[in-house]
């Protein structure tokens, strides 16, 4: 579905991602893991058009999307969530989800000001698309509640619904389980499985290795901005390069499979 070839980006003298060649196959869950500072979130930012690469190419469904802006990437069928839940707490759950659908509408500012027929049709389409997304994440009955009144898990689901309402083919989840307790994490895993069973392709960055090992069909491992391994969870967990990277990232003899803390800043 998505292929990156020799992908890289440099910030001043820092090569945050370097010469990464990898693929995200359709209909599967691909996890991107690595020690803090490995370049995972930067990799997502490149794929989703937030950053423009300084080298390499990104191909999605056979189209070179490397030079596209974020809204153009979303329109092609790639949506993402972020490490921190980026919802509008004072708006309703439905209104939040509608924001994600707006990328699919055609009405402009003048239409909105004049309340033209096109604006009204787009509003109806956005409501319908948002409700479909809320049904997929189990929040349809909460549609009219303020988003800020939901639990941490509920707010995470609102963020996922915002992405889903743009009708993506590929969903990028950036640390979806951050801040969740074990029960909420199990619920999130079930939701992700349901979304993939419904035809979605998912790539996720995650520090909780229990979630990664329990969900992923394949794992891409980054270290210092470079790909050091890609394969099934079993293959990756036995890879000497991966074991060394994780051992070296913990001051007190941590190991692959241990949950690391904090955000990925690279």
UniProtKB/TrEMBL annotation:
GO molecular function annotation: ATP binding
Domain ABC transporter: start-end pairs: 2-249
Keyword flag Transport: yes
Highest rank taxon of the organism: Bacteria
Keywords linked to the UniProt accession: ATP-binding, Nucleotide-binding, Transport
Organism: Deinococcus antarcticus
Lineage: Bacteria, Thermotogati, Deinococcota, Deinococci, Deinococcales
UniProt entry tagged with the keyword Transport: yes
Pfam family, one: BCA_ABC_TP_C
InterPro entries tied to this protein: AAA+_ATPase, ABC_AA/LPS_Transport, ABC_transporter-like_ATP-bd, BCA_ABC_TP_C, P-loop_NTPase
Protein name: ABC transporter ATP-binding protein
Coiled-coil stretches noted in the UniProt entry, renumbered to this chain: none
Transmembrane regions: none
């Amino acid at each position: 579905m998505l292929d990156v070839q020799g992908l890289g980006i440099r910030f001043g003298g820092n090569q945050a991602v370097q010469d990464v060649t990898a693929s995200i196959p359709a209909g599967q869950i691909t996890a991107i893991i690595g020690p803090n500072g490995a370049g995972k979130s930067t990799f997502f930012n490149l794929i989703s058009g937030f950053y423009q690469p300084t080298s390499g190419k990104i191909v999605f469904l056979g189209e070179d999307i490397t030079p596209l802006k974020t809204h153009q990437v979303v329109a092609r069928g790639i949506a993402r969530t972020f490490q921190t839940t980026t919802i509008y707490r004072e708006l309703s759950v439905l209104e939040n989800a509608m924001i994600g659908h707006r990328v699919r509408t055609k009405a402009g500012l003048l239409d909105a000001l004049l309340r033209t027929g096109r604006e009204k049709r787009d509003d109806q389409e956005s409501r319908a698309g948002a409700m479909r997304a809320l049904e997929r994440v189990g929040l349809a009955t909460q549609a009219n509640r303020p988003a800020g009144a939901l639990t941490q898990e509920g707010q995470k689901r609102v963020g996922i619904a915002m992405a889903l309402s743009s009708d993506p083919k590929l969903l990028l989840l950036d640390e979806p389980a951050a801040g969740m307790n074990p029960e909420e994490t199990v619920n999130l895993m079930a939701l992700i499985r349901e979304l993939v069973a419904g035809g979605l392709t998912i790539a996720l960055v995650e520090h909780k290795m229990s979630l990664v090992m329990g969900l992923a069909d394949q794992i891409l491992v980054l270290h210092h901005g470079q790909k050091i391994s890609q394969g099934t969870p079993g293959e990756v967990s036995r890879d000497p390069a991966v074991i060394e990277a994780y051992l070296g990232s913990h001051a007190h003899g941590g190991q692959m499979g241990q949950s690391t803390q904090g955000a990925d800043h690279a």
